[in-house]
């Protein structure tokens, strides 16, 4: 089994149906692990009716959150690669193959296709492939990017998970657990990449916008663990938020301290490699 895909569901059956149709259309040699987090609509009945021989389903009686649900999936995943895919996305031809090329060339921990959602333009689920091919032109097939590698659709490898561990379940219900995972990967010497030759269409926050996300709690957990994390952000959004909520961080000296930290981390990783 090359690829294990883990998808969480919590109501919104109409999106799950579209996702599964798109997944089977544009993906091969995979197993699908669905973790239902206590759906109360007809999602459970639909999942029980699926007649594919490569599906495993876990039914939770309550919503255990993004981290715990994905960790349940990781426990039973058998693939060399592991994908974390939302149930409110649509995929692109050869999306996984394009991600796999990065792993074959780089010491990558996480690779994501380009993210497209309705906020980009007037595109919709019927035209996103054409829209991407027409409007998104890049000089390189992939690039390093902490922010643009998003966990709505991301691939990692089993050996990466074995090295850095699983999702931190202190994040409830969702948000910041993905950045935590990426940051741990960077500390372990891996790269974070986004593919410029494939995309996925994301309807966006279909489930999470109706849940109590405990955002401030999750933010505090993240920045307590990783006080330098704001300087990994390309967009600057997280940097701005942190400066607003934690004004004792001064950007100028912190930026130089972070650069020194990265240098020391690089040297440490090289020394570890030499010893091995």
Structural overview:
The chain is an alpha/beta fold and 276 residues long. 42% of the residues lie in helices and 21% in strands. It folds into two domains: 211 residues, Spore Coat Polysaccharide Biosynthesis Protein SpsA, Chain A (Alpha-Beta Complex); 63 residues, no CATH class. The chain has ten helices and nine strands. The strands form two sheets. It has a five-stranded mixed beta sheet with strand order 3-2-1-4-8, sandwiched between helices. Strands 5, 6, 7 and 9 form a four-stranded mixed beta sheet that branches. α2 links the parallel β2 and β3.
Features:
2 domains; Spore Coat Polysaccharide Biosynthesis Protein SpsA, Chain A; alpha/beta; 10 helices; four-stranded mixed β-sheet; five-stranded mixed β-sheet; 276 residues
Summarize the structure.
42% of the residues lie in helices and 21% in strands. The chain has 276 residues and is of the alpha/beta class. Strand 1, helix 1 (13-26) and strand 2 (30-37) form a beta-alpha-beta unit.
Q: What is the H/E string?
A: EHEHEHEEHEHEEHHEHHH
What structural class do you assign from the helix and strand content? alpha/beta
Radius of gyration: 19 Å
Q: Flag low-confidence runs.
A: 234-254
The main sheet orders its strands as: 3-2-1-4-8
According to DSSP, the number of beta strands is 9
Helical residue percent band: 40-55%
Largest sheet: 5 strands, mixed
The CATH architecture of the largest domain comes to Alpha-Beta Complex
Mean pLDDT: 84
How many distinct folded domains? 2
What is the overall silhouette? globular
The total of helices stands at 10
Q: How far from one another are the termini?
A: 30 Å
CATH superfamily of the largest domain: Spore Coat Polysaccharide Biosynthesis Protein SpsA, Chain A
How much beta, percentage-wise? 15-25%
CATH top level assignment of the largest domain: Alpha Beta
CATH topology title of the largest domain: Spore Coat Polysaccharide Biosynthesis Protein SpsA, Chain A
